[in-house]
Amino acid sequence: MNAPTSAKVLAPTVKLLINGQMVESKTTQWRDVVNPATQEVLARVPFATPDEVNAAVANAKQAFKTWKKTPIGARARIFLKLQQLIRENMKELAALLTAEQGKTLPDAEGDVFRGLEVVEHAASIGNLQLGELANNVANGVDTYTLNQPLGVCAGITPFNFPAMIPLWMFPMAIATGNTFILKPSEQDPIVTMRLAELALEAGVPPGVLNVIHGGEDVVNAICDHPDIKAISFVGSTKVGTHVYNRASLNGKRVQCMMGAKNHAIVMPDANKEQSLNALLGAAFGAAGQRCMAVSVAVLVGEARNWIPDLVAKSKTLKVNGGTEPGTDVGPLVSCAALSRVEGLIERGLADGATLELDGRKPEVAGYAKGNFVGPTIFSGVKPGMSIYEQEVFGPVLCLVAAEDIDQAIEFINANPNGNGTAIFTQSGAAARKFQEEIDVGQVGINVPIPVPVPLFSFTGSRASKLGDLGPYGKQVVMFYTQTKTITARWFDDSTTSHGVNTTISLK
């Protein structure tokens, strides 16, 4: 992207990627991409027209005819090249991400790196897309399976991980032989487009990866288009439920990773310093704008006495622009996000929670217009309070007290969400009890954000997920492929015919 422009100069436009070309949209509807720390307009993103969406899908459908026949080794080598290009451009990618999303530069690099891990995994597609064979299942009969690509697939990604989540999606879809339509968040598409450029440089053929931008109309067009066979979505519960229902009714495969309310149990035997550090990093990192953020800590027994330590340690965290060295908490992504988080803090007070630490309106030198909220802690939080029932998506930590581990587990299991949870303890018995009895898809034991490496798959559950299969890992290979089962018998000239057989047997 070009450098940010002043208000007197028209900002550069974000392009569409259609059939291997960066295309200027003909739309009349645009949105500004804004630096959340300064309110500077970085670029303008188009809301693609119906004709542009249709063109992207048509080119993807055409490209699929040859891409599905591309040897597995050739597909894998593209992703070997892409991971190299991402590593070489890591600093640039992080800088773009920080400018448009607000994360600190180290956290932005982490965002890119976690996506890079999936790109590396996609390069192993030869081992992941294997079928099965049973020899001589009946007289001279073999049965085997082929895991074949579906066709045109699509991904809809959120603002909070504009590098990682696109990299969760298109590499695995393309590596398995599909072509792809990516719709990144309209709030921060710049780093996503840079990744798309690197994918083209790595050798992704024209039409195999296409990128379109837009809002609700484009999302609905993806859900409705008859040539799109599968959709992967990460974002809010409201939008994810809409996507799942609408796309499923149109006969598509759909996986939706949605909202969360992640709890961490802190046992009194936990290593205090390590647990507090991990808890606050998971609660306030990325300004709380993670679907796997720990937003509720359940303090068991004597751990309830650690609240002053939590508050004191939180006060040492530095709130600043994401490019400033030593920053712990950057800005929220938008003015609307800032207003929403501040409103929920007000409602927390009105509902009767105790505000142990108020992070509203921090003074951030040089960033008077930034969307900043500092670390905020409530105690005495109970079900029914807005700050507990809603996903705040800001740097707000709710504290709940429990008498013992049974009460803590019961409390967490009563929450409808099931993205992630964690326990901090030095007791193997407590950890085992927790992992067996907790009804949440991803469990951390002394690990606050238990997002698995790509050898496994993201396995959020209950209200946090719609669809049977998760993104990346072994599950997503199943999601992006259709199993075809072949039963074969070959006869030689010496085979004796026994006449017509009208039974179902293969004997």
Entry keywords:
alpha/beta, 507 residues, Aldehyde Dehydrogenase, Chain A, domain 2, single chain, six-stranded mixed sheet, globular, Aldehyde Dehydrogenase, Chain A, domain 1, disordered N terminus
- Number of discrete helical segments: 16
CATH topology category name of the largest domain:
Aldehyde Dehydrogenase, Chain A, domain 1
Strand content: 15-25%
Q: Considering DSSP H and I runs of 4 or more, what fraction of the residues is helical? A: 25-40%
Secondary structure tally: strands = 22
The secondary structure category is alpha/beta
Count of the separate structural domains: 2
The appropriate CATH architecture of the largest domain is 3-Layer(aba) Sandwich
Strand count, sense and closure of the main sheet?
Answer: 7 strands, mixed
- Measured between the Cα atoms of the first and last residue, the distance is 66 Å
